[in-house]
Design brief:
The protein is of the alpha/beta class. The protein is built from eleven helices and 13 strands.
């Protein structure tokens, strides 16, 4: 299948592009490089463009014979979405509507959407199932939920077949440790701890040590990026069977902030400064997934569920790319 990977030069998009190639598909990266890196997708055909450019999208979809679209081109910083909500509504919602309209015009129906566990907000029950009420507490989560609803309504017309995949915490470096996280600035926990272990950050902060958890720190569900991308591939294959699919993607097992810190210490053999700080507003004590539905319907299994293995692949990539991707 020929797949257009929007945001394909980013962290998850580049790993997805590599997996598509290994699975025998042809992928074309569509990216404006505001966040992505050309060095992350060597040897892949690239269309440089923005999802706001409908004419370019229609031309790309038609002239390149695209059969399916995967969408990883959202902005993802929760704090920034609170400070600049219109930026997130423009890129995450309006630009996705533009993409779906271009797909309709070009006659491309298959769509795999990178959604998020942030659509649930502060859930009443954990592990979280797909039927949990959707009550996002920030513009980032709101925009992702709005796209899911837009896809649902478009699917009702018979012109779209989609899967919305609600990520928990993607981590690790995929494709044998060759595709890692290079966010600028970085905000994800494992890369931040690794930076501290490498001496590139003065300390790592723990926000809140008095949560009702075994060690007092927040617990989150981490999933290796290879496992995450494998679920996308399986979902793509299933779109012929049903027009609408929504799945949680996580391990179902949570790890605390202290456990992640300890895992980085073990893998790296390094010690570093830890600073305990107050809780951040809006942080839940525990957020873990119930991915039973994805396992049952997609036949999906996590191959790298162990925290230490996830951290080890990330450590490998960061030590081999201390300054991130070469630009």
């Amino acid at each position: 299948m020929r797949v257009l990977v929007c945001g394909g030069a980013g962290y998850i998009g580049s790993n997805m592009t590599a997996l598509l190639a290994r699975a025998g598909h042809e992928s074309i990266v569509f990216d404006n490089f505001s966040k992505g890196h050309r060095a992350a997708v060597p040897g892949v055909r690239i269309v440089t463009g923005d999802l706001a450019d409908r004419e370019l999208l229609v031309r790309t979809l038609g002239e390149l014979g695209i059969e399916a679209v995967m969408h990883f081109a959202a902005f993802i910083e929760v704090g920034e979405s609170v400070q600049d909500p219109l930026k997130y509504y423009q890129n995450n919602l309006s630009n996705t509507q533009n993409l779906l309209s271009a797909m309709q015009q070009a006659g491309v129906a298959k769509f795999v959407f990178s959604s998020t566990a942030a659509v649930y907000g502060m859930p009443q029950r954990v592990p979280i199932v797909e039927e949990e009420p959707k009550e996002p507490i920030n513009p980032y989560g709101e925009t992702k939920l709005a796209v899911e609803r837009m896809c649902h309504h478009q699917a009702q017309t018979g012109r779209l077949r989609f899967a919305a995949l609600r990520y928990f915490n993607a981590c690790g470096a995929g494709a044998n440790g060759t595709r890692g996280e290079d966010h600028r600035p970085e905000s994800h926990l494992i890369p931040l701890i690794i930076q501290a272990a490498m001496g590139r950050r003065p300390a790592i902060k723990i926000y809140g040590t008095d949560y009702p958890t075994p060690d007092g720190t927040c617990i989150r569900d981490y999933i290796h990026v290879d496992d995450l991308c494998q679920a996308h591939l399986l979902a793509l294959k299933k779109l012929d069977e049903r027009a609408e699919r929504v799945y949680n993607l996580g391990n179902g097992q949570g790890y605390s902030v202290r456990q992640v810190i300890d895992a980085v210490k073990r893998v790296s053999g390094k010690s570093f400064k830890i600073v305990e700080d107050r809780r951040r507003p809006g942080d839940a004590a525990v957020l873990t997934s119930d991915a039973t539905k994805a396992r049952a319907e997609l036949g999906w299994r996590t191959e790298k569920p162990a925290l230490e293995e996830m951290v080890a692949t990330a450590w490998k990539w960061h030590t081999e790319h201390p300054n991130g991707y070469a630009e």
